[in-house]
Amino acid sequence: MALTQVSSNKCSDGYQKVFEHDSSELKCKMKFAIYLPPKAESSKCPVFYWLSGLTCTEQNFITKAGSQQAASEHGIIIVAPDTSPRGCNIEGEEESWDFGTGAGFYVNATQEPWKTNYRMYSYVTEELPRLINSNFPADPEKMSISGHSMGGHGALICALKNPGKYKAVSAFAPICNPIQCAWGQKAFSGYLGSDKSTWELYDATVLAESYSGPELDILIDQGRDDQFLSSSQLLPDNLIAACSKKKIPVVFRLQQGYDHSYFFIFSFINDHIKHHAKYLNA
Amino acid sequence: MEAYDARSLCVIAEELSEEDEADDEEAFVMVQDSHTHTPDAFCSHCRVLTHSGAAAHTRHTLLALGPAAQQIKEELSHSRGKLSQKIVEMENFASNLEEIFITVEENFGRQEQNLEQHYNEVLQTLSQSHETRAAALGEQKSRALERLYGELLCCGQTLDASKQLIERAQGVHRQRDQRAFLQAVMSIMKRVEQFSSKEVDLKLGMSLDFDVPTTDLSDVRQMMDSINVLPAPSAPVMNPQICNSATDTSLHVCWSLFSDDTVEFYELYWRLISDDCTMEPLQDVSQLKVKETHCTVSDLLPNAQYELWVTATNTTGISPASERAVYMTVPSPPVIRPRQCVSSLDAALIRWDSGNTNPVESYTLEFRESDTDRSNTATESVVAIPSCECLVQLQPWKHYIISVRAVNTGGPSDLSEPVDISTAGTCFHLLEDTAHPSLSLSADGLTMFYLDEDLPLSHMTFSDSTFARCVAVLGDLVPIRGQYYWEIEVDEDTEYRVGVAYEDTQRNSYLGGNKTSWCMRHIVTPSRHKYEFLHNGWTPDVRITVQPRLIGVFLDYGGGILSFWNAALRQHLHTFSCRFLHRVQPCFALDNPGALRLHTGLPAPPMI
């Protein structure tokens, strides 16, 4: 598991770096971004995993979200992986923006031709943390997860499927109930097949209804002027209803005037990092 | 004297060491004996080492060496103890003697001085009268001589004139020429006749007796007498009141006499000075006979002024009264109002009642950490507090015991009953005078009730500080810009507003509906529980999936933060970022009948 440094830039007293490695899970070369706060030079730091949305690479978050300043202050490592395997030469991989490359949906595909490479769930929950913990001054006991849109969905399912693994979870405009929306149905039928019961294993709303484990404290921000909210791709109300029923603590903030962009993320990333820091640095 | 003490001690120490040596020698002898027979017992009668079967000690009590050594050691230490006690007694006696020596020496010295002074005065007076008399005598002498000389002169002149006349008469008598004789003789004869008919005064013109003036030595006699007779004392001088000498019911009064005076006893008089003396007749005068030049007067009123004066008496008479001095009893201790005391992490506001009907000068607040080991905790004080409250800076995470004294010119009162203050969290109470008439408070002042039965508006009484529309009440935080945390316990269906508001927030508008208040509001709708975070009538759109039953409110002036938490879950709900320009107070309101229970004194959870 050799790491190749692609770039390194000093940022907010720490370093924003990009590495490339051969992923055993995804059978391809993968890049991930890692922000190392100044505190990482002297001690182990907790790790905040960021899952990006459709079409994104590891670059979007680190160049647009403005997370480094808060991460530097709170002494948190931020790891932002790519959103899908790349260059696997699977037929149809590049055909649409919401399926295939840049749209891994953080599931382990069970269907051909995707099942060999499209194992993003295992990649972000197993392989990547192992890699980070063994190559960087990361505290393996302290990890948390967040993401945007498809990545918000990814963050929620990773937390709900692995009780206790993540100390904190939050999301920006997450796809809350993918089995009920167009994006989710397209992706899940492609990666998981037609048996909808297998879809439920990757649906945050369904998972919330059966969650049992340590208390979660979920922070969700949603722009009110998000076109995907009005086109019913995100369906936060379903998740809120499920969490209300199961008494899973969620603070859901509908932010007036904000859309689905990284401008929206930039506006509230500090609140999220503070939310994560509360549990990571406890 | 001290040198003598030291020497005597040395002597004793030497004696002791000599004894030790003697013991050692004896022991040495014993050891030498033991070459032949090792002694294994001790005869308590003869006090020597011996053998258990020795014939010489058959009727004596023999002890084993261990217990015997122990016993003798105890006896020794007992005697040493006694001896050292005696040394202490002797030392005390010696120092007593020393004091007496000094006093006697001083007294005799004073006597000698007095005697010398008196005799000097007498000698001076005598020599003065001697001078006066010698001068008078000299004057008398020169006057008498002068006069005698004058008479002598006069006498000589008359003699000369008579001789001349006789010579002329003889000359005329020898005249041969009869005619010429007769011509001249008539006038001479006339003059001789005239002369001889004049009676010559041959008596001394002055008395030759000595004029002996009567010598007045009465003053000298008086002075001589006064060497042994006491004069009546002069008026004593009242000393001003000494700090910390008074209590709330007694005064310790001191005065001084002139060092020459001898006084048998004093009489002390005192009288209460009434504040409105123009209204009331003068208070009764009390009186006490005292031997010393100080006296403690008791059974007085607290925080009151008394005028005192004193006379001195000896066998000769009574002195005039001293000037009147004004002394003051100290106040009664104040009474702390524990319910009105509020605290935070780094300060406490302590309030109390004066405990005195008259105003006192100031108050002193004393505080110390309440520690199991009392000796390690220093007491700190805040002095010159003009009113019945004091804001005191404290260290966080400590327990303090705080008391108050009232102070006047007479000194400080006893300590008030203490109040325990913990700086682990925010402690405050609700300001009842701000409560809407429909809002009632529990006896402990921490639960608010909005009862179902609505009072008719005519039965409600509103003051300027009462909330008139919102059924609300304010709390009373320590007035410093610090950090505060408190919790509110709510029921599921209670509709409430909790948060903070400026002290002068509008009493006729709803909390959160204006720029002077910030609050979290809970509304029950048929479909869900709605939460608002209201300021100036605006709220962000926030959904909360788990209803908080215990709401944590965190206020940080410095950070400009007011945040709300689900305290049971430690879940952050909302944060207002705002610069509080004035002092804010916790506020609580019920929008429908129900209850809120306040929890104070809690530390802020670590994640905040």
UniProtKB/TrEMBL annotation, chain A:
An example GO biological process term is:
formaldehyde catabolic process
Q: Which UniProt keywords apply?
A: Cytoplasm, Hydrolase, Serine esterase
| Compartments (UniProt record) | Cytoplasm
Stored SUPFAM superfamilies? alpha/beta-Hydrolases
Keyword Hydrolase tagged: yes
Enzymatic reactions: S-formylglutathione + H2O = formate + glutathione + H(+)
Q: What class of enzyme is it?
A: hydrolase
What are its E.C. numbers? 3.1.2.12
Q: Domain of life of the organism in this record?
A: Eukaryota
One of the record's GO molecular function terms: S-formylglutathione hydrolase activity
Could you give one GO CC term from the UniProt record? cytosol
One Pfam match, given by its short name, reads: Esterase
Q: Which family does it belong to?
A: Belongs to the esterase D family.
Known function? Serine hydrolase involved in the detoxification of formaldehyde.
Official protein name in the record: S-formylglutathione hydrolase
From TrEMBL, chain B:
Which PROSITE patterns does the UniProt entry name for this protein?
B302_SPRY, FN3
UniProt keyword Coiled coil present: yes
What CDD domains does UniProt report for this protein, alphabetically? FN3
Give the Fibronectin type-III domain ranges: 236-332, 334-426
InterPro entries per UniProt: B30.2/SPRY, B30.2/SPRY_sf, Butyrophylin_SPRY, ConA-like_dom_sf, E3_ligase_FN3/SPRY, FN3_dom, FN3_sf, Ig-like_fold
SMART domains in UniProt: FN3, SPRY
Under the heading PANTHER family, the entry gives:
E3 UBIQUITIN-PROTEIN LIGASE TRIM36-RELATED, FIBRONECTIN TYPE III AND SPRY DOMAIN-CONTAINING PROTEIN 2
Name of the protein described by the UniProt record: Fibronectin type III and SPRY domain containing 2
Q: What is this organism's lineage?
A: Eukaryota, Metazoa, Chordata, Craniata, Vertebrata
